[in-house]
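As noted in the main text, all predictions were made from sequence alone. Below is one such record, for Tyrosine--tRNA ligase.
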Amino acid sequence: MAALAAATAAAALKAFFHPHHHHHRILLHFPSSHRHRHHHRRRFLSSITSSAASSQPPNVVSILEQRGLLESLTSDNLRTSSTSPLTAYCGFDPTAPSLHLGNLLGLIVLSWFRRCGHRTLALIGGATARVGDPSGKSSERPELDPQTLSSNTSEITKTISNILGRNDNDNSVVILNNYDWWKEVRLLDFLKDVGRFARVGTMMAKESVKKRLESEQGMSYTEFTYQLLQGYDFLHLFDKMRVNVQIGGSDQWGNITAGTELIRKILQAEGAYGLTFPLLLKSDGTKFGKSEDGAVWLNPNMLSPYKFYQYFFSVPDSDVVRFLKILTFLDMEEIEELEREMGLPGYKPNTAQRRLAEEVTRFVHGEEGLSEALKATEALRPGAETKLDWKTIEGIAEDVPSCSLAYDEVINLSLVDLSVSAGLLESKSAARRLLKQGGLYLNNARVDSESKRVEADDIVDGKVLLLSAGKKNKVIVRIS
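Prediction:
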């Protein structure tokens, strides 16, 4: 998949360097390869036109508005323009090794554009991440070394490629890196070609700049220029690849309008639009996207699909309907039906949450990830019929306390003794009391007899045991 994405991106990049508006002044000269570029450009542009269905496509702006995914438009003309094929992009700065829940909305909105017959691309900010976006930040980001940036870029590219490639019909995920055109830019050329069109008054009036200038830390010149870099990215994509819509969170408004302004002033062209979506907040106004352990990452190596699923499963009732509209592609009728059911006497608690968790986990981690999450969820339920295997137990290991005991220490040991030595319960009397109440489980099977001892067959795949006290408290015993 990553190889396919890389090949597609390479093709798109070759197309990138071929200007199609001959009457426009071409800015900042970059090295380019002439070989096959006409072919790639034709392929990219024909895919834009062929993606529009012959019948009238659904209006993406109306859909986003209906679902609570529309904050602002730079022009209302986008409502009518969105009935013909557009090309939209969203930028992702590789400042962390994984995208997180805050970035998920960008992928969802891109996916809505694709579902409505438009072309989309993702832009990795390999250059802009070196400067640091001041939007929503109270202090300057720490500088990242080239190796970290490269590693982050690779991981994020893989995630975007997996999510969009899996969830959209044609699998052609175009992912570009703005470092590819910024690395050759000379400062004097940039000041001549871009800087003289930027008004300092306008730049200082941006919300992200105003807030920082009033703060104790102030703002560096480097970060002050960020909006021009992102603005020029939009101009570059508009001029070279007919990308006419930039999307982003509401905190990106200043950076997006910097781009539409540069396009209007430098290229003297109309038809570039910005669209922002609201930031993901809970009903109490706090940010949605932080778990007890930190960010809700989209990379399964940083947050297991099981933990990701559990995060959405525990969303409060006051938020679940709104999140179903924003974070899933379910029909509005189905969501309204779920909302109606929530108000009925026979409603089974967490039914809407389960649907939310399933849909979002499937979008981010695919059927395989969802199946892993459901299997682990079921496996962790004491009394469950699911036969446990080592992989399932390991999948939940980071979420459950664990200890290591030697095979000889465990074999033939009574369950009462094991639950104390593994740290599940404080004393043998507490273990006996729980056992009598029917609350002590070995590998999800209830232990009924005080004389029960650990046998070789109890050790799952010869590697682990799962002890449970009631529904919530568990310990994994690794056999060394």
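The longest strand covers residues 473-479. DSSP finds 21 helices and 13 strands in the chain. These features were considered when defining construct boundaries for the mutagenesis experiments described in Section 2.9.
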